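Quarterly update from the structural biology core.
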Amino acid sequence: MDDGRKKAGRADLRDAALRLLARREHSLFELERKLKRKGWNKAAVSAVVQELADAGLQSDERFAESFARSRAEKAYGPVRIRAELGERGVDRALIERAFAELQVDWLAQAAKWYGRRFGDDRPQDAKEKSRRQQALARRGFDAAVIREITD
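Predicted structure, tokenized:
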């Protein structure tokens, strides 16, 4: 491959990465994975994505804050949000920093979702109570919040 085509390919790769970032924030891991799936060279992808991160165009910290805020607004709990961020390759320290910025009342979030989902009526039996507790757990709320809401 001649030098001109190699540079054009790298420019196309950079443009593809920027298009993805223009739609929404992506973690470094996500961005690399998406570009590699599209058939771009792994070494070139890593280099271009790192350049974008160094230039401040991609930021795991911004991604973590944005993702955590978005999921919290959709009434997902901290356990699930942390797990989802981890699956997206975000470092544990960045996850904790994002949560420190978040300042969400998880009990209020869980109660709001619970009220929308189940209404004001109390569970009729232990089986129904367990089903509701499991629904809260799947949303990512911890045991203390679940007990507070369902007791």
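The chain has three domains: 3-58, 61-102, 106-150.
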